[in-house]
Write a structure and sequence with these properties.
253 residues; Double-stranded beta-helix; 13-stranded antiparallel sheet; 4 helices; 49% strand; Transcriptional regulator; AIM24_sf; Trp_RNA-bd_attenuator-like_dom; AIM24
Amino acid sequence: MAFTINNLTDNSNTVIKDKVGSFTVLEYIKDLSCTSVGEATAQYYMSKSNMHRKQLMIEINNSEIMMRAGAMQYTVGNMEMTTGVKGAGGAVRGFLSGAATGTGSIKPLYNGTGTILLEPTYKYIWLIDVDNDEIVMDDGLFLACETTLKIGVVARSNFSSAVLGGEGLFNMSASGKGVIALEAPVPAEEAVVIELQNDVLKVDGNFAMMWSNTLNFTVEKSGKTKMGSMASGEGLVNVYRGTGTVWLAPPSN
């Protein structure tokens, strides 16, 4: 069985923005499907602001990937989709973990050989090669990954860090070795990457999009006393302590 996809990667309006393993990020230079002056005007200014439609293409060869529910646009080739859920208990666990992390209850698995195109997005697609490491993601960033990675749920260390820190009670984690795709609010080249060696990072707001699971995340007062925190105007801050890496969105976002 063989197939050819024409006018996709060989289209002059399409560029390959990034490629890691079997994951490829396509970016459309212009939106050529405008049907009104209003749409054309909006697309013009969006293009000037670096807002381009992007699409994730995944090519699998006798392998398997996991995807965010509802993200698939079309598939070509000999592959099958399963839920990866075994029995009612698995469905309940999937629902609870999905609701906790904001990623959807059931994440479909696609295995076989072929090409998968995900729904286009104006957000930014990050491709991360996890190499025998474990990362924790902000809620809702997960898009797709190789099933060689172990996807889990990490509970916040205490209730106050979840509620007061704005990070939610749980976050999704990815560990092992494989490629993961995230749908982020900022391009990867704008992310501020901070590497800690037995040190402390304090962030005013939930700007952290991803961090090493080796770090201890808590929420603390910005000052030594409650009155001092109030006087500084900062109040509570998210604190990442230990050895590891934190990826921050630019504060303007």
